[in-house]
Amino acid sequence: MRSSRQPTARGPVQPGERALAPDLARGVMLLLIVLSNTGFYLWAAEHGASGWHPTDGSTVDQVVQFLMITALDLRTYPLFAFLFGYGMTQLFLRQTAAGAAPKAAVSLLRRRSLWLIVFGFAHAALLMAGDIIGAYGLASLVLGWLFLRRANRTLLVWAAIGVALIALFTVPSVIDATTGHFGHIDASTVEPTTVVYASGEENPLAAAGTRLQTWLFVVFVAGGVAVPIHVAILLGFWAARRRVLEEPHRHLALLRWTAAVGVPIGWLGGLPAALAHVGALDVPAAAVAESGALAEIAAGTGLFGGLGYVALFGLLAHRMSARARRSPAAIAVAAVGKRSLSSYLTHSLIFSPVLAAWGLGLGGKLGSASMAAFAVGVWLVTVAGAYALERAGRRGPAEALLRWLVYRDIPAVKPAAPVG
């Protein structure tokens, strides 16, 4: 029986077609993500109004919290979104270059997005409430349909509109912070319990229910209405068309300006919240609570920090010598990037059973610094695993399953016969 699905021109990307910079960026990004998720597993600690990090701990713990709030929180997810949009466009361009109709390529990406939502649901139901696979699946479903075939100018115009909206909501918070007006939010109404993202729930079924409720919120907020995520994906579409990361030598001015502007804005935007968290800045709890002035500033500048990190990865790839590119370290980190879905899921496969109260409960005994060290160790485990798979010429298990689900019953079109 013939498939009713539109034919594609080719199958998934092959290892020899990949460029170093995007995979290197994804590999390092996964380290940043696993670090940024650590606070949610410190379920026995007392959390402040922001709910992200504990308010107690040693001096070393406070240093780690300060660095995370300044450089990681709300900065890694725009980075992820940009690379996600970049990868979508790479897939689309490979299909159309091989002869597929644009409509068929978009249909393929739509199918992939739907399966990512399914992956995210399973991830949240079994392991992690803060799953972002489903959120990016929803965002890619909508933005792929609306923008993937649009002109570059259209992408930039809508990205600019998004940045204007971010500024519209962020500038008043900057004014409030500089004038000392932090609003009148009752911090007691936003104090989280110690059951952070269901990791502190001892009953496995109750934890699963909490995880799914949180996941639905994350999917429809981050994937549906989070403007910074959407802007980052649109800019990823545009940058992939120009091969910014594959050919960084052609875009050095853009990359340097983006890094020079984006990283400082991102860090300066997170700095007030970090200073307030460690007690170096005396502000009411309402200032760092959700919708508080400092929280809004941190959120509004996260996009710039994420884009700045992308630019740094592009510049790093450009400056790496041929010998460095062939080094085991570079190959291993890039191997993680090639298997980003498997690596991301592996984080939860280790984190949740070991750290959550319904598992071994280690998260109730660690502080921010020891949890960060644990996270780095988990990332290194994924690096070793990805490197072993790379040497064996094998894909990650999650990537292999996703590709089978996406391509399994879609017929490939035969390439046109050469003329003459």
Count of runs of 4 or more consecutive helical residues: 15
The fraction of residues assigned to DSSP E strands is under 5%
Question: How many extended strands?
Answer: 0
Q: Which overall shape is indicated by the principal axes computed on the Cα atoms?
A: globular
**CA-based gyration radius:** 22 Å
User: Sheet with the most strands?
Assistant: none
Task: Report the order of strands and helices.
Answer: HHHHHHHHHHHHHHH
**Residues in helix, %:** 55-70%
**Category by helix and strand content:** mainly alpha
Describe this structure in words.
With 420 residues, the protein is mainly α. Helices cover 65% and strands 0% of the residues. The protein has helices at 20-36, 59-71, 76-97, 102-126, 133-147, 152-179, 204-222, 227-241, 252-277, 293-319, 322-325, 328-338, 340-355, 368-392, 397-407. Helix 3 packs parallel to helix 8 (227-241). The protein is globular, with a radius of gyration of 22 Å. The protein starts with 19 loop residues before the first helix and ends in a 13-residue tail after the last helix.
Secondary structure elements and pairings:
Elements: H1 20-36, H2 59-71, H3 76-97, H4 102-126, H5 133-147, H6 152-179, H7 204-222, H8 227-241, H9 252-277, H10 293-319, H11 322-325, H12 328-338, H13 340-355, H14 368-392, H15 397-407
